[in-house]
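Example A, followed by Example B.
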Amino acid sequence: MPLDSDKLNLTAAEAAVLAGSGLQRIGFCAEEARTIAAHLVEAELMGYPAFGLTRVLTIAEHPRTKDERKPIEVTHETPVSARIDCGNHVGMYAIERVAEIAIAKAGATGFALVGAHNSFLSGRNAYYLDLIARAGFVGVHMASSPPVVAPLGGAAPAFGTNPIGIGIPRRPDPIVFDIGTAATNHGDLVLASRLGHELPEGMAIDAEGRPTRDPVAALAGAILPFAGHKGYGLSFAIQALGLLGGAAVTRGSVQDFGFLFVVFSPDLLMPAADFDNHLNDLITQVKATPRQPGVESIRIPSERSYAERARRRAQGFELQRVIYERIKAL
């Protein structure tokens, strides 16, 4: 763990111990802490620090962490569907359980539609889609949340950052495309506020509706949707679909956390081997596209993050010292 003035280098094992011990100190059992820590370490390895170890602090600060937790329960079920009450468990634990239920149902029937509610802070959609795709299924995942993003033309928040992701099975690593529908992630604002960094232009407004680069002012105001009406429309649709997961059931608000998984086997439409061959042909043709000057290669979604994970597994990753010290001081 060589140190410098601002950062230190951690291995994945050291990061898991740091995150796990911090999570246990704020009240999580060993199994919960291991599950959540694995999610956070994976985010660091894949190059997404706003979803990484800093989330230990975010979980510690979140008011729902102090509320009572109950067992995760299936409240409505058919052979191909389920709606799940996550019992106020943090999303990085609960939504992994929900994804496992979706995988099991898809394994039995070829298709699963699973919604969930009564959870918070689910982290990266890509983490769950990786699990689904490695099990051999195509997955689509959407998540709504409380308001932090302004609607198009609005001066106050109305939506969550409302990510949508798609996972496609492939070897050795799946293809995963995961985006939020806002100009930036709420976690990026929180991390920027912890580190005293300014935001890029055009990402947020303050509480008066004025453009701001100050992350603290943005947290009091709103994030903007990405790509104007396109991001706004997609964000609205995901907030609406979150209602199917039960977003309004938890606390009576339609602007709350709701989660939806659509999981299916490629075999429902064609033999999996045929789909794999077609997909490889598509990737080959995309990568063979003539490149613009200065472009070394054309990458497919998630190619960079899986390569980064392999590199960081071998070499470790840098963590801001202020984040490390605050986790240690919990």
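Example B, a separate protein, is given below in the same form.
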Amino acid sequence: MTIVDWRDVPSEVVQGLLLAERRRALDELHWDLAPSFKTVEQARQRGELPGLVLQDRHGRPVGWAFYLLANRLLQIGGLQAPTASGLRLLLDCVLASAEAQMAQGVSCFLQATSPSLTSALTRWRFDLHRHQYLEASLTNEWPLADASLLRPLVLSDAPELVRLLARSYAGERVARAFAPNARLEEWAQYTGQLLNGPAVGIWRPDLSLAMSSTEGHLVGAVVVTEVARGIAHVAQVAVDPAHRRQGLGRRLVTVAGTIAAAEGAKRLTLMVSEENGSALALYRSLGFAPRGHFLHGVRGPVPRTLNGVTIRATGGLKAIA
């Protein structure tokens, strides 16, 4: 197998790989990755997004990966290969990249399409946490809830939403998936991605809800996006610690689902950490069922040398195993 820098690969080859992944995600998760992949391809063509293409012995593209160095953290945005050895080789080359050598740590949030991904990440000593991807049907059986005191979440709520997320996730290990160091500026960046980017679907302010205290501070919010036609997605639900155990989280999700159904959505999806037992119980009581799972992985700096892979630069990265 051979790996080449995807910035040196014709656009139609990369687009073919991404199209195959888009079709798989639509089939398995009811998630259309087209908006995200449009952003990815634009960044690749500008030379701003490093990535790799895995080729078989006949030179045919069979796998890919892309990654980004931001704030001294290497973020692996995608990693796909049809075999365990292909996954290992891709991961080895990502972690041997110049960007990885400059990083103070590595993170990933990837769909676990096969046990081989877990094995490849474990081999590199990633600290792994599973997140379930759940889906519920927005049928006549969808429960009703009291919508009083709830209002639409608007863009001007963004600063309050940043602070609400920081408070609601304070001290929780799962927060590393959103704000690796729990800094307020990281929550601000994450909130900006929720409301302005396609990473977790396109934000639907008409489906998103908030609840404020008498002082005007957010005490609860649900951010809903659209991940495909007819598929609404709960990208975030947060309740201030001082307002928990009052059923607010259930109300936010239930009312958002009711509004989404009225707007034509057929299904509601979300992701939840398997470590969050109370949230899992809540979602199951609302009729959510698993469709897949994702792996959030983190690790420290990678070694300066990589054994078992020969890497040479000939018009870009090339690795042969």
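On Example B: Confidence is low (pLDDT under 50) at residues 310-318.
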